[in-house]
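Archive maintenance. Older records in this collection stored only the sequence; we are now back-filling the structure field for every entry so that each record is complete. The fields below show one back-filled record exactly as it appears after the update. Entries are processed alphabetically, and Large ribosomal subunit protein uL14 is next in the queue.

ARCHIVE ENTRY
Title: Large ribosomal subunit protein uL14
Organism field: Acanthoscelides obtectus
Length field: 81
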Amino acid sequence: MIIATVKKGKPELRKKVMPAVVIRQRKPFRRKDGVFIYFEDNAGVIVNNKGEMKGSAITGPVAKECADLWPRIASNASSIA
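Back-filled structure field:
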């Protein structure tokens, strides 16, 4: 979990500092099996202090590592990569 500024979204949420979880990143990272994975864009979801999503849907894939750590985010993901 990180503290981030909202760049896109509803006007009442934009320009506010909130806790978030990174679900995709452009920088390649190495998985334990040796495979390097990276995504087309950087993305995160806003969460509360308990780790529950503030939104209701996630567009695009979610990293498997994120889905393992945050099961509530994984349940709303359309696909897990």
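Update note: The chain has one domain: 2-80. The mean pLDDT is 92.
Entry marked complete.
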